Amino acid sequence: MTQRYVVVDLETTGNSPKKGDRIIQFAGVVIENDQIVDEYSTYIHPGQEISLFIEELTGISNETVKHAPDFEDVANNIAQLIDGACFVAHNVLFDLSFLQEELVRCGFEPFYGSTLDTVELAKILKPTSDGYKLHQLAKEENLDHSRPHQADSDAYATALLLLELKKKLMNLPVMTLKQLYRLSYSLQSEVSELIDACIASKLAKAEVHSPEFNAYRGLAFKKNEEESERSDTESDYPLDVSEKMALLQRAFPAFEARSGQLEMMNMIHHSFETNQDAIIEAGTGIGKSLGYLLPAVYFAKKHKKPVVVSTYTLQLQDQLLQNEVPKLKTILPFSFQAVLLKGRGNYLSLAKFERALREKEDNYETALTKMQILVWLTETETGDKDELNLSSGGQLFWNRLQSDGLTYNGLKQPWQTLDFFERAKKTAVKADIIITNHSFLMSDLLTEDALIPKKGYLILDEAHHLEQAASKQLGRRLNYIAVKTVLNRLGTSDQKQLLYKLNKLLVNNGLAEGRNSQELDRKLNDFSYEFEQLFHYLSNQAEKLSRSMGPKRISFKVDDGKWGKAILIGERLVDLLGLIITELSQRLALLLDHESPLGKNSLFYLNDIEVLLGQLQDTRESLHEFFMKPHEENIYWLDYTNAAPQHGVTLTVQPIAGSKWLWDSYFGRQKSVVMTSATLVVKNSFQYFKEQLGLENQSILTASFPSPFRYKELVKVLVPNDLPDINGLSVEEFSEAAANHIIAAAQAAKGRMMVLFTSHEMLRATYHSIKDTGVLDEFTLFAQGISGGSRMRLLRNFQNFEKAILFGTTSLWEGVDIPGEDLSCLVIVRLPFSPPDEPVTAAKCQYFEKQGRNPFAAYSLPEALLRFRQGFGRLIRTPTDKGVLVILDRRIVTAKYGPEFRKAIPAVDWHQASISEMAEMIEDWIE
Q1: Region for residue 21 given its phi and psi (left: phi exceeds 0; alpha: psi -120 to 50; beta: otherwise)
Q2: Domain for residue 165, yes or no?
Q3: Which of 101, 201, 399, 910 is buried deepest, with most CB atoms within 10 A?
Q4: Domain annotation covers residue 40
């Protein structure tokens, strides 16, 4: 008999029927034989008021349901509709449990049939989606979803989504379906029944082998086209403007000449041909990416040498590979190959995944992640984790699957030819353009067996991050959760983790004599206890030193008297860890030197222990440096959040001038390095940027190509004249005053506003001040560190709501691209000076003082000016954007350095205005 599906969606007055919430709209869509055959929907009178929030969300008001039936009047219709069907919903637990409560309340039997959750199904079958909200999936699949948050529209869209997901399931090979079926019993809805039906259908049609997939050792993979060798075709670089224009207009028929972009191309070509370094600032709208890619490709083809392009953000990496490179391929008179290369940990280890599939004890998160990866293997060409959308539990599970640390040939051998990282390396050798990130680039340059040419040609985009990336790469972190995770994976002799398995192997191979397990257990327990004590003490001290809410960064110096007890514990931990590492290494060596061959499972255990040993050694070196032998040239600090006391403590060290060392040792050896960004110039000079990298005395080509945008016609800048001076008030007092101006600006701009802060403390205080007034209840407020979610998720959510306000700190000052009307008003709450007591700032200022220079002029002001320029750059992303910049820090007009900030951005109209005048100006400007 054909399965009947009823796809249900409810709109309700709240989340809890037990607390009196009621249904205000029900919709059901019936599917039989993969066709929509019936629909039923009705408004329902809830017997209570519908809140303003629910009305805003759903469009359903008290007036809408005024004459609607009570649930009792339609309960029989609903019960009959779902009887004998598979109950389907997008987040089925919510809809079904809510409906069950209402049916039982009205005297009907609960629903006992099968359920199917389209969220769960979408996560499995669309493992690379940006998100799993219904509107996101509907948009991706081009499904009709005209009225989100109305039950009839949501149910219909969910039904269409189910039909699409069933098609995807039917297109998977049988071997993948069988693996999915085995894992599906760990899920929350009856996905297993759907998969079972698909397998039966495919077997009935004898569709066992799928020609579009390769199969190996029980796994199915997307068939990859063989990468072609680098072509010898070459073409002379078009120096003439008309030649370049003819090329570019092939890809962009409406292309307008941007002289800055064309000059940038020539400068980069000249730098490579003459083996010179260059620094280029390319303003927004110049077309920077194409500006460096085109000359890079011509040079690589002509000289048969790869050009490496390194970026700071994953977003730009993806943009280059998915947008810019394809455009170039359409316009160039020859073919070229561009590849993405990341660190080994970004790639899936097929050997580890094969082993994980054999494990029986799956919890929900690991089962779901395995299912996502099985489907992903039929789609991916790279095996790169960043393609996947994993839950936090899935991310943790990935750490066991990433392609690193397989040291024994017996484990690597079966998968050597298919290994994703090995394939990425081979492809990179043949490529003309290698796209990577600053982190991988620097770690690769520091290894003996480097993949990136030591004496080659390099383009560093987002180069203003180079110093930060270098310091991070050369630094180290000591994190409570990371160390506890290692200890938990190792376990003690009776915990059936890796140490238990190691001891069992010793016994089975007759090598246990003289090995005292109890003594090693005692040392591990002592270390674990002392480590807990250390982080408990550190969090207590941090709490005393920081009474503010939110994350806090505190300078950590072992000689300043605040951390005396921590030093004593640290010394004991170093000694204990030394003894533990020695004992584990000896046990490992005994097994590896033993004449009897070890099986594959045993080798996997030993390999895991070897990886943990490396992590324990890193921990010991970190403890030694932090608590016993700190270096003068390094900065030490403690990051603390009181939301999770000892779990929220991380110790970090980085060099004060790491980028200078890296340049002298590695970058300086390259034949040509081109550094580019939209923000490198301070006070019309590259001096600050050059000093950061220790290049002030180097002969380097420099150029600045300003943005072609007509900012005077696009931007109005407003500075309130009725706000007190920020320096004369506490954080709470200023936040309250700022909140009033933000509310006025938000109402005038109708949302579509981003508010940038320099500290979490002020963000939190201002956000809560605004929330407490209730004036902006009709707006959706997203706040970094409060609303939850990653930066990218916050941005996506912000763009999905019409009346939205986004509150952000450091990472939102740059690298955020929100074109068009989604962002019409930008508020900068205070000028972006780093707090003087922030450890990195304090250390850099001391560094300049020792050189006899003014730290404010040499470091604090230039850094703030660059950050200010980056913040301003968020507002106008295309030539047709229009917006208002509101600066709540009156120092921009009153302080001696105020003119420096005003000159740092393009020429625009500046106005000082009262709160009411400001609101009028905003409304008039962005209408």
Answers
A1: beta
A2: yes
A3: 101
A4: yes
Residues 476-529: pLDDT tens digits? 999 898 899 899 999 998 888 899 999 888 888 888 777 778 899 999 999 999
- The boundaries of the domain holding residue 563 are 476-655
| Distance between CA atoms of residues 283 and 245, nearest Å | 20
Asked if residue 684 and residue 634 are part of one domain, the reply reads no
Beta bridge partners of 116: 88
Beta bridge partner(s), residue 41: 27
Angle at CA of residue 870, ends 866 and 874, nearest 5°: 165
pLDDT tens figures, 66-106 = 999 999 999 999 999 999 999 999 999 999 999 999 999 99
Is 491 annotated in some ligand binding site? no
DSSP 685: B
Is residue 289 a known part of a binding site? yes
> Rounded to 5 degrees, what are φ and ψ at 645?
-35, -85
Q: Was 456 annotated as part of a binding site?
A: no
Does the structure show a pLDDT above 70 at 208?
no
φ and ψ at residue 326, rounded to 5 degrees? -60, -35
The DSSP result for 166-182, as a single string, is HHHHHTS-HHHHHHHHH
Looking at the fold, whether 487 and 620 belong to one and the same domain comes out as yes
Kindly state the DSSP code that residue 815 receives in the 8-state scheme. Answer: S
**Are 881 and 820 spatial neighbours (Cβ–Cβ below 8 Å)?**
yes
Residues 872-901: tens digit of each pLDDT: 988 888 888 899 999 999 999 999 999 999
Work out the average pLDDT over 834-846.
88
How many CB atoms lie under 10 A from the CB of residue 144? 10
Predicted pLDDT of residue 405: 65
811 & 871 share domain:
yes
Q: Is 288 annotated as a binding residue?
A: yes
Neighbours of 389 (CB within 10 A): 15
**Strand runs (DSSP E) across 231-387, as ranges?**
278-282, 307-311, 338-340
AA identity, residue 282: A
Which residue in 774, 700, 898, 881 sits closest to 267, CA to CA?
A: 700
Q: Which range, of 91-95, 612-616, 797-801, 841-845, averages the lowest pLDDT?
A: 797-801
What count of Cα atoms within 13 Å lies in the side-chain half-sphere of residue 9? 21
pTM of the predicted model as reported, rounded to 2 decimal places: 0.83
**What is the spatial distance between Cα 449 and Cα 469, in angstroms, rounded to a whole number?**
21
* AA letter at 637: W
AA letter at 528: S
Rg of the chain, C-alpha, whole Å: 31
CA distance 509 to 583: 18
- Could you list the beta-strand ranges (E) of 22-94: 23-32, 35-43, 86-89
SS3 428: helix
The pLDDT value given to residue 661:
81
Higher pLDDT: 232 or 326? It is 326
Q: Could you give the CA distance from residue 878 to residue 876 in angstroms, rounded to a whole number?
A: 6
Distance (Å, rounded) from C-alpha 340 to C-alpha 427?
9
Q: Which residues pair with 887 in a beta bridge?
A: 828
Measured in degrees and rounded to the nearest 5, phi and psi for residue 782 equal: -120, 130
Q: With a cut of 70, say whether residue 226 has pLDDT above it.
A: no
Distance spanning both ends of the chain, measured CA to CA: 59
Other CB atoms within a 10 A radius of the CB of residue 721 amount to: 14
Helix (H, G, I), strand (E, B) or coil at 586: helix
The position carrying tokens 């404010």 is 856
285 is in an annotated binding site: yes
Residue 659 annotated in ligand binding = no
CATH number at 96 reads: 3.30.420.10
Using the predicted structure, report yes or no on whether residue 163 has a pLDDT greater than 90.
yes
Cα gap 456→674, rounded to integer Å: 11
Angle at 456 between CA 454 and CA 457, to 5 degrees: 135
Q: Total structural domains in the chain? A: 5
Q: Note whether residue 234 is domain-resident.
A: no
Alpha helix (H) ranges present in 509-599? 517-545, 564-593
Among 874, 736, 891, 743, which residue's Cα sits nearest to residue 808?
874
* Residues 872/887, Cβ–Cβ less than 8 Å: no
Asked whether residue 173 is domain-assigned, the answer is yes
